[in-house]
Amino acid sequence: MVTKGLKLRIYPNKQQRQQLAQNFGCTRFVWNQMLAMLNERQENNPKSSFLNAYALNNLLPLLKKEHPFLKEAESTSLQVTNQHLIAAFHAFFRKEKGHPKFKTKHAFKQSYTSKFVHGNIQPVGDHGIRLPKLGIRLPKLGILRFKAGQRIPETIKQVTLSRTPTGKYFAVLIVEGENQAFPKTSKTVGYDLGVKDLLVGSAEGLRWPTTRFDHGLACKLRLWQRKLARRQRLAKKAIAWDHHQKLPVPRTLADFKNVAKARLQVALIHEKIANQRADKLHKLTAQLVKTYDRIAMENLKTKNLLRNHTLARAIANQAWGELRRQLTYKCAWYSKELVLVNPYKTSQLCSTCGYDDGKKALAIREWTCPQCGTHHDRDVNAAKNIEHLAFG
């Protein structure tokens, strides 16, 4: 059995949207209250043992008594919020992430997670037929409608509901399914990650050129970003004038519809770019997993590479982290193997004789080994070294 996530776009009605907004606010409030308590406890008594999620859940009844509006929220979502907070602290202690931060209602994306308890989450509809409209029954919300072209398993472990900056609602269902396997091909491959080409394989001709999705919409994005900046600047001047006049109810940025319109247009463009990039990566990774049984890639530290301001935009466009994430779970789903290799000197060593020709500038795309005379394409040679390091 493998755990999978199914992402569905949902269409809540007005009452359900209000309840979703309330749940977003309640989980955010619990996160901030618990985070403030943990920070204060650590400052006042640094040697005290750190609380776990179970201890935080025991504080929820007292918090609900003090703040009755929390009783209107979906109860398991508050427990999951505590689990996420403790997990964030553990990642901080392991130096994997920064210190957990307080959440704001002005964040572009809002979400919360509900757990499956005593049948509180159930799919609705005929699961043997691909109906154009199906639904899912959720606590506090009732039946949420969605359109899907796949069957939903009877058992759902948890569901995460979210609202995007463009006002769309999504549900991510965590379900368990059978471990499917693609036919074995006995093929292995190594891949070098790059900027000019997204992937270069260890065999000649295996290249996936870069697609700059942001270039096609760059002019439109810049236009709306300038409009947004100008409208925000004018709105802030109007707000400052309201305060100068000492109006009883001064305006806020939320009162300026032209600012909201520009912000929405910028979010829509970013969303389109992200969707195009994700679609390409899903098709690419599915093809790789079907074709090869064992795949090797270099384990790049993208965060460090982004410090190169000359290449930062191009590197971010490649989405190497998302590519690696998709390959990781798809290899696990379909019984394939993914090996991550230290990229140290993979571009310097001759893949034929192992001679180290020293560090090379990025402008050098081809070179000839002075030891054995083999002429190398820089990226193909690196991919061959990656495959050799991973599989011998």
From TrEMBL:
Q: Can you provide one Gene Ontology molecular function annotated for this UniProt record? A: DNA binding
Could you name the domain of life of the organism this protein comes from?
Bacteria
Q: Where is the Cas12f1-like TNB domain?
A: 320-386
Q: Where is the Transposase putative helix-turn-helix domain?
A: 1-45
| Keyword Metal-binding attached | yes
What InterPro entries would the database entry show? Cas12f1-like_TNB (IPR010095), RNA-guided_DNA_endo/Transpos (IPR051399), Transposase (IPR001959), Transposase_put_HTH (IPR021027)
Is the Zinc keyword given for this protein? yes
* Swiss-Prot/TrEMBL GO biological process terms: DNA recombination; transposition
State the UniProt keywords alphabetically: DNA recombination, DNA-binding, Metal-binding, Transposition, Zinc
Domain Probable transposase IS891/IS1136/IS1341, by residue range, is 179-308
Question: Per its UniProt record, what NCBIfam families does this chain match?
Answer: guided_TnpB, IS200/IS605 family accessory protein TnpB-like domain
- PANTHER family associated with the record: RNA-GUIDED DNA ENDONUCLEASE INSQ-RELATED, TRANSPOSASE
Protein family: In the C-terminal section; belongs to the transposase 35 family.
For this entry, the protein name equals: Transposase
Q: Give the classification, highest ranks.
A: Bacteria, Bacillati, Bacillota, Bacilli, Bacillales
